[in-house]
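Weekly structure sync, notes
Attendees: PL (lead), two postdocs, one rotation student
Agenda item 3: pending single-chain targets
PL asked that the sequence for the first pending target be pasted directly into the notes so everyone works from the same version. It is reproduced below exactly as submitted, 268 residues in total.
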Amino acid sequence: MLETEPLLHVPQSAAKSAVYPSLADRRVLITGGSTGIGEGLVEAFVRQGSKVVFLDIAEEEGRQLVDRLTPGTTHAPRFEYCDLTDIDALKKCLAAILDEYGGIDVLINNAANDDRHEVGEVTPEYWDNRIAVNLRHMFFAAQAVAPSMIEAGGGVILNFGSISWHVALPDLLMYQTCKAAIEGLTRSLARDWGEHNIRVNTIVPGGIKTARQDALWHDDAETARILSNQCLKERVLPRDVAALVLFLASDDARMCTGHNYFVDAGWR
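Predicted structure, written out during the meeting:
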């Protein structure tokens, strides 16, 4: 592994981050890439010289991210507006991307929404909506890109889970149900597609410090609670998640598949 000089807007602490030569020119598709963890993933892969396409409904933020990351990059990232709960729209969007790029090498199924709710408030309509937001699109995105990976002789799919169901956080029944199911989805796809050299893993983030989490949930009391539950007494940042994702997407992780990989500072 090599070291690289920092790009514009890259924190100095990221200046000595690993560079994976195998990720250069790789075609990477990221869902939910406009903000939060997804934004960190887009930036990280752009720094690797990957050809990054990211999908989101946050259009203004997505286009601003493209403008921010484009100067000085090998491949400018590309933003596509897509409502992932509309599977027909997702399929059309992915078909166009696959046709233009000739395939996808790495799929990062990151998009999700962790809105809080009580058990008694869950209606059949809300159930279906939360499944659509947090789980269903992951399968259909994987299904869409798999043929190009098979044709290319391999690929990588990384599905985002969550620490929340492992520690049974309150008021997140639907989110946690979906995140638990994602680990089963990962295991199944890893087994079914392993013969085609497609590696499938789950990323399990802890309490990640993002603007959305800080604005909605992570007040001083919650931040103190998170730190008290972590072995390492420092907040986990999007770039910490991205560091794990980069490794698992690279050829250095060629024998890693069918498992869950935690980046949670040792949440207990």
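Discussion points:
- Strands lie at 27-31, 51-56, 78-81, 106-109, 155-160, 198-205, 260-263.
- The chain is about 45% helix and 15% strand.
Action: rotation student to compare against the earlier draft before next sync.
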